[in-house]
Design a protein that fits this description.
Blueprint lengths: L2 H17 L20 H12 L11 H4 L44 H7 L12 H9 L2 H11 L5 H12 L8 H6 L7 H12 L16 E3 L16 H5 L7 E3 L21 H13 L5 H12 L14
Antiparallel strand pairs: 1-2
Helix pairs in contact: 2-6, 2-7, 9-12, 11-12
Length: about 325
């Protein structure tokens, strides 16, 4: 069964389950945890590194430069070393813990791989190298103390990666209205409930499901109706698998905090959430949504906005 037929049948099945009141939000989704355990010394070190431009070649950008507002920078493409523009939209770093892989094409399976494969060494990002990073950290009395506190060791590149990953794993955004709804602590408004019902019955949930409402599968952008975008060859799954059948297939993004992370899609071309909903409805579900349906789904998606992680707040 090919991807398009499989997704179409899955959406039909979901719609039938919704019709018979079997497929409901409470038996599909899981609220984010309100509290998590973590190593305070490692996370404090990772946080400092995340916000420090010391990791970039010219000491001018940090991880937070591209991942500041709800884990993004709200730009079509991020600007890296020497004002070099990136070539694909920057995904959020919030709730990364629940993704099956990283980057739009899933080329890295762990956060440590992602750090090496992307921001630290890429010429259009931090453009640095392992030796320079490690030497800078070893020359900093403050970092020496922080590394000794967290690892009982002098700074090393591997422990630097571990600290940043430890920090990123805490960047969970709990207590959204939807999480509260799932815990029976919040009653959706009529508009929000209508949007949730449409989200379920139209089969949006066949791709955007699980604790992160996405991030856990790969799907074609333009599953039902082809999305024509020939301006550039995007880094899709075909780049990873070398299988032509994986052309225009990307990791499904999480919908958590989606109202805060515009512009949308891998190409960063869509500026409004309503437009993104309409396009996905047409190209990936095969439905031309009415204006009120788009508005209702938007109202539901806005209930997915959670709290800024406590560990992310600079003066925490």
């Amino acid at each position: 069964m090919n991807n398009i037929k499989g997704q179409s049948l899955l959406r039909i099945l979901v719609s039938l389950l919704v019709f018979f009141n079997i497929c409901t939000a409470n038996n599909i989704f899981i609220p984010l945890p309100t509290e998590i355990e973590y190593d305070k010394a490692k996370v404090e070190l990772g946080k400092k590194l995340f916000f420090d431009p010391i990791l970039s070649k010219n000491n001018d950008i940090s991880c937070a430069s591209c991942h500041g507002n709800y884990g993004v920078d709200n730009e079509k493409f991020s600007i890296g070393d020497n004002q070099t523009e990136g070539f694909i939209n920057t995904p959020t770093v919030f709730n990364l813990e629940y993704n099956l892989a990283f980057f739009w094409n899933g080329r890295s399976e762990t956060l440590k791989e992602q750090m090496i494969d992307g921001p630290l060494f890429a010429k259009h990002e931090m453009a640095n190298d392992k030796t320079t990073i490690e030497n800078r950290l070893k020359q900093s009395p403050e970092y020496i103390q922080l590394f000794l506190k967290a690892y009982s060791l002098m700074p090393t590149f591997d422990n630097m990666l571990d600290a940043i990953v430890s920090f990123e794993e805490t960047l969970i955004t709990p207590n959204s209205k939807f999480d509260q709804y799932l815990r029976n602590e919040y009653k959706l408004t009529q508009k929000e409930e209508n949007g949730m019902d449409l989200f379920l019955s139209y089969g949006c949930v066949s791709c955007h499901n699980g604790i992160n409402l996405g991030g856990n599968s790969y799907q074609k952008f333009g599953t039902i109706i082809e999305y024509k975008d020939s301006s550039v060859k995007w880094a899709d799954r075909e780049d990873v698998t070398k299988n032509i059948n994986d052309k225009n297939i990307f990791r499904v993004p999480s919908l958590r905090n989606i109202e805060k992370t515009a512009p949308y899609f891998h190409n960063g071309q869509i500026k409004t959430l309503q437009n993104a909903i309409y396009i996905m409805g047409y190209h990936n579900v095969g439905i031309v949504m009415a204006k009120n349906e788009v508005e209702d789904i938007e109202a539901f998606l806005k209930t997915l906005t959670g709290e800024i992680p406590k560990t992310f707040i600079l003066d925490n």
